[in-house]
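hi! just following up on the protien thing from before. the input was this:
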Amino acid sequence: MGDLAVGARSGHDEPEKRADEAIGDDVTGDDVTDDERAHDDDDGAAADRSGRSPKKPRSFWKELPLLIGIALVLALLIKTFLVQAFSIPSESMMNTLQRGDRVLVDKLTPWFGSEPERGEVVVFHDPGGWLEGQETPDPNVVQKFLSFIGLMPSAEEKDLIKRVIAVGGDTVSCKEGGKVVLNGVALDETSYLYPGSVPCQDSFGPIKVPEGRIWVMGDNRQNSLDSRFHQQLPGGGTVANDQVVGRAVVIAWPVTRWATLPVPDIFDQPALNKAVGAAPLGAASLAAALPLVLWRRKKRTAGHTAE
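and the predicted 3d structure came back as:
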């Protein structure tokens, strides 16, 4: 009977314990749910107080036109103030430049007062009459637009590209079949002239280049209508510095032709600058000696009067 009592007590205890555990679980679950609901209620109240729902990220397709606009503006600014691409249309600068090459022209330094220097390859606007009678490309609307913003080389502007041989104050000349003489120094141009090309077929000069102007020639001398052939035009074949777009600094396309365009060493000769500076020095010496001559003449005249 004792066994039955124990067994009866044990049989009733287990269900009661399980019932208590079940009730405890239910209570715990209700507590968690209440917390979450309270949190949700707080969020909803905050959203109601702000009067607006959380922001959603903008769609890529809505931002794309803005990104394109910014890119176009940047391209236009770069073309206007930094660099511009130009296409080489002829063979006048071979082998330095070949037909179809794309060069990048520095347009920044002229804004800071930089002027063309001897030996540089420069792009300049037609001074007037240089391209007369020559056909220019007729681009379509898309090409015009891309050229305007700088994503394509200049399509319809009448620009030329040559090498600066002489600047303002220089004296340049050449005898038929001989070398170009700059400020009394014969130039050895073999490093950049087209193979088999002579410095000049016909004689010209000596020509004194006016201040603020340049004398330009192509590297392919037998196939270049440069300063030599426009001496009958205003400026005597020279180009005004303000007509220069900028210096060509690099061949950008095709990639197999990529190269910089440095100034040849022959234009770094000190003798070129000494020759230019000789005339002003002589004038300065004459101006300094003039008062002494006048004083001696006055003294000599006074001596004759006294006698």
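Residues 1-32, 278-295, 299-307 have pLDDT under 50 and may be disordered.
The radius of gyration is 42 Å.
cheers
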